[in-house]
Amino acid sequence: MKAINVGLLGIGTVGSGTFAVLQRNREEITRRAGREIRVAMVADRDLERAKKIAGEIPVTNDAFEVVANPEIDIVVELIGGTTIAKQLVLSAIENGKHVVTANKALLAHYGNEIFAAAQKKGVIVAFEAAVAGGIPIIKALREGLTANRIEWIAGIINGTSNYILSEMREKGVSFEDALKDAQALGYAETDPTFDIEGIDAAHKLTIMASIAFGIPTQFDKAYTEGISKLTSCDIAYAEELGYRIKLLGITRRTAKGIELRVHPTLIPAKRLIANVEGVMNAVLVKGDAVGATMYYGAGAGSEPTASAVVADLVDVTRMHTADPEHRVPHLAFQPDRMADIEILPIEEVETAYYLRLRAFDKPGVLAEVTRILADLGISIDAMVQKEPGEGEELVDIIMLTHRTVEKHIIEAISKIEALPVISGSVKRIRLEELNRN
What we know:
single chain; alpha/beta; Rossmann fold; Alpha-Beta Plaits; eleven-stranded mixed β-sheet; six-stranded parallel β-sheet
């Protein structure tokens, strides 16, 4: 049977890993796919490096030459970004080629357009590697859990931020020092904004929410809050109370609409996901039939991500000649059955909260604070007042609330900060139990 010819766009970290896995496991992959999958052409700006890796395989610095080549069956887009990558992917689709991509930003921003184009041309866009690296979470959501009504997803889906939070907790270091360490080890970019401010996680969450709930990709409606303002004292206080702080991507189906949010979150330390440390990723998915399931593994790296890319290549090869009407839909639901469900603004989200305030050590302070919370229907689950240091007038008060609507917490914080007995701003971190409910 004729081999499947792959055009590889980008042979950097993931591209070189993909090339290596295809070469090393060629026989095993052929046995699984039913025919040989071979890289027939490579495009990369660094021609010299590309030629060293590709050997005898033709190499070009013009990626459009690859997507226009009639001999190429599948285009693998690994160059990243949302400009040239978008043009290349749409051009490949227009030329009748299947596409495999690891580009979460591209799909989060332009997935609706790309999937519509692919549907029209009868080709496949596969993107397992776009979310959580080597963890097969997309396949689990699209296929393994297809019998379920997905209720919620909560994931540690950015290894850089998870490494920083692990270092802050284990070593008591500041955010700035943990970030410098992550950069020195190559876990964080020189400009780490996408990772530490939650943007990368929001890209991935947007894709998972679309598959889980059968809604269009809507990155612009995702609430995003990063970890750069977290302090080691809050991480220590959370630990004392039996919680860990993780940057979570959370999407949940509610009666009012879909929650789509990324932010630091307190999780009970006894939960498995709370004990995911370093650069590892983990995703919890709650289905109505199966209950809570967890997927854990390397969320980035050359060969872990290549594992997902090659798995997509095998899937596309298996379905290459299949009737397009009978393939697994890109976003799990049939294109004409996608739902128009509101994405909730963060003010309408309901969750519990960790509040830390600095107050003067005087009688009646707690009474004033609790009155404000009670007037807004916010009940307290736990409260700790720390002892003041020698010669200090201010003390830390930490409160954990029961679940409430965010707009009520925003109002309460505003009123608490206006009290003359309170110094500075109130620190607020959301809290999720992540139990079976």
